[in-house]
Amino acid sequence: MILRYARRLRGYTQAESAATYGIEERTLRRWENREFDPKWNDVISLVEDVYLLNILEVIGKINDDNEHND
């Protein structure tokens, strides 16, 4: 959820994100679809180094969105 949310927030495609991070697009797709669990370091690196977002702020925004949708 964090990866997809951050990627969409920045307007990246899965292909762009994966290429920038140096992984295959299908790997990112599997992470986003929760078919495989990425290492926490990969989540942080993608959010902070590729999407240039603060991981804690992204988690906060997700929590805020979930509270408004409940």
Automatic annotation (TrEMBL):
Highest taxon listed in the record's lineage: Bacteria
GO molecular function: DNA binding
InterPro entries for this protein: Cro/C1-type_HTH, Lambda_DNA-bd_dom_sf
Protein name according to UniProt: XRE family transcriptional regulator
